[in-house]
Amino acid sequence: MFAAPTALSRRMWLKGAGALGCADLFPKLASATETEIFSEGLKDHAARKGLIYGSAVEGLHLRTNLAYQETVLRECGWIVPTYEMKWGVTGQVRGNSNYARPDFIVDFALRHGLKVRGHTAIWYLNIPKWLGEALHEPEKPDVFDTHIQELVTHYHNRIREWDVVNEAIDFKDGQPHGLRNSIFLQTLGPDYIARAYRVAREADPAAILVYNDFGVEYPGARQEARRRAMLEIVQNLRRENLIDGVGLQCHVNAGQRFDAAVFRKFLKELADLGVSILISEFDVNDTQLGPDIETRDQAVATYAKDFLDVALDEQAVRGVISWGISDKYTWLNEQPFARKDGAPSRALPFDEAMRRKPLWNALASAFDHAPQRDHSDPIIRPVK
Ligand code: G3I
After folding, report:
1. Which among 94, 166, 91 is positioned nearest to 125, based on CA atoms?
2. What is the rounded CA–CA span in Å between residue 189 and residue 141?
3. Distance, CA 340 to ligand 1 centroid (Å)?
4. Rounded to whole angstroms, how far apart are CA atoms 132 and 147?
5. CA atoms within a 13 Å half-sphere pointing along the CA-CB vector of 260
6. Quick check: CB of 126 below 6 Å from ligand 1?
7. Is it true that the peptide bond before 336 is cis, omega within 30 degrees of 0?
8. What's the average model confidence in pLDDT over 17-45?
9. In testing the pocket of ligand 1, which one of 65, 68, 83, 214 has its CB within 8 Å of the most ligand atoms?
10. Of 140, 147, 148, 383, which has the fewest beta carbons less than 10 angstroms from its beta carbon?
């Protein structure tokens, strides 16, 4: 009926609608303030420096919450499904993949000019119930290769960047090279990682292939071991030209000691391997902070700014994807991550009513103060 207004035309549109008394003809705009409705989004602050900003999303929320949908469209240049593209969702029936749920998110993105990250082809969680048995079958069926090949091919020319393998490191399992003792390691051996990237590379040679993991941001022996293990995975994949980037999830904790020099060194080690870096699941857990909301929000914002100033100072870092955009839908309210006092987590740039928080300002300021990206550098050349 009416073309979605641009920011400027929306101001005129609202005045006109109000004057004509036909404001009720239009869906009620988000509960954001007028400033937020007409101002630039985080994607604009990022883009001015050649960076990207986006968020993880769920189809249900895009379909049912207009204020959330408007916030995603205003703020994000990229989106990534939190879980609907995972094998456990698309592969519930063996031999009959169903992409309807992730298709909704990808179609929504492409309809609005957003780019999509594929998350994730191979992860030890959210796998089909039949997979364990299938991978133990003596003839070693090619369910592993077929899944990756079908998924990447299905989204050919619509998704250009994939978290092919997610979270393959876990020293608690006592395996060589710190690898997680997943069903894939048990049945296919350590080569399952390179095998996944070979299949993805062959399925879409133009795609950006990424290794995604967490727990590499902080000082200390445990995370240093994880950093070494990630560098080894990346080095092995680079030798066969199977990887283009890494995703550092950066689920950080306000109140936890952050050592800028340690993180800066790791970012440079990754960049020296010739891979781009994405802060791929950014949120700032506030469980260690007191209950007062204003104090918490300021502490989260300060912590985020200090962290992102270091991260974005490395040229190979391409931008930030936050793991959600509104506190209304954060995963951090689920056990065992929720606050002990039962107060809702406030880890994201918008509150439950889609109003900006100090963390929004911290992200915008981090982008505004980041060094301009040199896109002649093949590592960080933007995905077309
Ligand atoms: O929405 C359905 C609901 O309709 C249904 O009744 C309910 C019970 O089955 O499930 C609901 O979906 C759940 C969804 O979260 C809701 O957001 C899925 O079962 C549940 O598996 C899903 O969990 C996701 C989790 O990955 C496992 O896939 C989280 O949203 C998502 O935030 C989390 O994301 C991971 C990254 O992929 C990797 N890094 C860590 C990150 C946080 O754990």
Report:
1. 166
2. 15
3. 21
4. 14
5. 12
6. yes
7. yes
8. 57
9. 83
10. 140
55 lines ligand 1 (CB under 6 A): no
For residue 161, list its beta bridge partners.
Answer: 117, 208
**How many A from CA of 124 to the centre of ligand 1?**
14
| Residue in 248, 305, 249 with CA at minimum distance from that of residue 277 | 248
pLDDT at site 24: 40
pLDDT in tens, 295-328: 999 999 999 999 999 999 999 999 999 999 999 9
Query: What's the pLDDT tens digit per position in 39-91?
Result: 799 999 999 999 999 999 999 999 999 999 999 999 999 999 999 999 999 99
pTM of the model: 0.91
Both structure tokens of 220: 């200390």
Q: How far is the CA of 182 from the centre of ligand 1 (A)?
A: 19
Q: How far is CA 6 from CA 25, 40, 247, in A?
A: 18, 11, 32
The single-letter DSSP state of residue 350 is: B
- 120-133 pLDDT tens trace: 999 999 999 999 99
Amino acid at 31: S
Q: Which architecture, in CATH terms, is 5-368?
A: Alpha-Beta Barrel (3.20)
- Could you tell me the two tokens for 184? 């894939």
Average pLDDT over residues 1-9: 41
**Which residue CA neighbors atom 10 of ligand 1 most closely?**
83
